[in-house]
Design brief:
- Helix content is 82%, strand content 0%.
- It is built from 18 helices and no strands.
- The structure holds beta-D-glucopyranose.
């Protein structure tokens, strides 16, 4: 894929940019995954009530929603690069504050800061990639950030396992400072995106950056497209203009997918897999954690498959296949729990259907959501509109995470997974009817389509 940025000097930038994608996503995955293991020790050290434990987990999600809320506007104004750089520093600060926390409230402050970093990284990493990648490889390149998220989650499970022996939760949380620092330093050498520069009247710099990114490749066609695109644009709009018909349809798609990505239940598995496995009969903690790592590996591998397919099969095909598969696995899971824990088959049904569910999420809804929200909005509104989708994603992540255990009390396990299955069917219909195909089209062509649809 190194050819994606063409030319030999272009390759150098390619690796740097992939590195940034890896770090932004890695931090997102690591910092969301790490708390599940760390919590086991934090709750003893600080004698936390169940409510306070919930707060320690949820506060990062609150931070993430806040980060996503401000990242769009800030990055439209100050540039993608500057905001990602500052985010790297926030990750370092937050990780250190949490790791060195003398008491609960300082710990919560640290996790809140880390959460803000996660929220910003979750949207600016794919946005940065989408705005620097050439059209025909954009799907694969943007999906690298999802791959990094899944690797981050897996690494966090492994780090938790290693430090669990000594109960060293401070190390678990503190290690996030290292990739944060590299992210900040990395952004010092990476350029601002050509599209943001062009959008701010800095066409000459945009041309220089494009030339550097594409190496020897011909950039005239891309520059002309950028210019045409800009002629259609006005000044930076306010939030009120979210109702502009050109933004409305992509906004419904972006926010709809954001909500469906969460309400179909992925993070009940990512955050609570050991609990689910224990309930299914893998009673020892170590077997449950091992099974969880297995799920983490499936998540990474299937994201790799998605990256191979996304620019060939297209976004819609992956989304629809993924959603159909997730639905079937959720039904199996519900059925497994309905048969009851008395059956020895349950453990295996659970393991296979959970792995299948995560695998199908990883080839569809996981990468395609973050990719589409970097693609479908017009340039002048991209940062803000992506922000709106990302806030919804984090808000519903919070909602699902805090209600999961209550849902189980209320509906039982079979009922809970059935609810997620029904919501998955809803996501399938939503995708079928509303989600556009963006494979192989430049961001400017996608935008031109929107203008055509809005006036017709
Ligand atoms: C989602 C996260 C989820 C992760 C799992 C991401 O696309 O936004 O909420 O934890 O995928 O791989």
């Amino acid at each position: 894929m190194a050819g994606a940025y063409a030319g030999s000097r272009g390759n150098m930038h390619f690796y740097l940019i992939v590195g940034i994608a890896a770090l932004g996503g890695l931090l997102f995955g690591y910092d969301t995954g790490v708390i599940s293991g760390a919590l086991l020790f934090i709750r003893t050290d600080f004698a936390l009530s169940p409510f306070m434990q919930g707060l320690v987990v949820a506060i990062a999600l609150v931070g993430a929603a806040t980060g996503a809320a401000v990242a769009g506007g800030l990055s439209d104004r100050f540039g993608r690069r500057t905001v990602i750089l500052v985010t790297g520093i926030i990750f370092v600060l937050g990780s250190l504050v949490a790791a060195l926390a003398p008491d609960l409230w300082v710990l919560i402050l640290g996790r809140l800061l880390v959460g803000v970093g996660i929220g910003v990284a979750s949207m600016l990493t794919p946005l940065y990639l989408a705005e620097t990648a050439p059209a025909k490889h954009r799907g694969a390149l943007v999906s690298l950030s999802q791959l990094a998220i899944t690797i981050g989650i897996l690494v966090s499970y492994l780090v938790d396992t290693i430090f669990a022996q000594g109960g060293q939760w401070r190390w678990m949380l503190g290690l996030g400072a290292v990739p944060g620092l590299i992210l900040a330093l990395g952004m010092l050498v990476l350029p601002e995106t050509p599209r943001w520069l062009a959008g701010h009247g800095r066409l000459e710099e945009a041309g220089q950056v494009l030339r550097r990114l594409r190496g020897t490749a011909d950039i005239e066609a891309e520059l002309t497209e950028l210019r045409t695109d800009l002629r259609r644009e006005g000044k930076l709009p306010g939030w009120g203009e979210l109702l502009d018909p050109i933004v409305r349809r992509p906004l419904i798609v972006g926010i709809g997918l954001a909500i469906f990505q969460q309400v179909t239940g992925i993070n009940t598995v990512i955050y609570f897999a050991p609990t689910i496995f224990q309930a299914a009969g893998f009673s020892s903690a170590s077997t449950a954690i091992l099974a969880t790592s297995g799920v983490g590996v499936v998540n990474v591998l299937m994201t790799l498959v998605a990256i191979q397919l996304i620019d060939r099969a297209g976004r819609r095909a992956l989304l629809l296949t993924g959603l159909a598969g997730m639905g079937v696995c959720l039904l199996l899971l519900a059925l497994g729990f309905l048969i009851g824990s008395s059956s020895p088959a349950l453990g295996w049904i659970t393991a296979v259907s959970l792995a299948g569910y995560v695998g199908f999420f990883a080839i569809g809804l996981g990468p395609v959501f973050w990719l589409l929200i970097a693609e479908i909005f017009p340039l002048y509104f991209r940062g803000r509109a992506m922000g709106a989708a990302a806030i919804s994603n984090w808000g519903f992540n919070l909602l699902v995470s805090v209600t999961f255990l209550n849902m189980i009390e209320l509906f039982g396990r079979p009922g809970t997974f059935l609810v997620y299955a029904v919501l998955t069917a809803g996501a399938f219909v939503f995708t079928w009817v509303l989600v556009p195909e963006t494979k192989g089209r430049s961001l400017e062509q996608i935008e031109a389509d929107l203008h055509r649809q809005a006036v017709s």
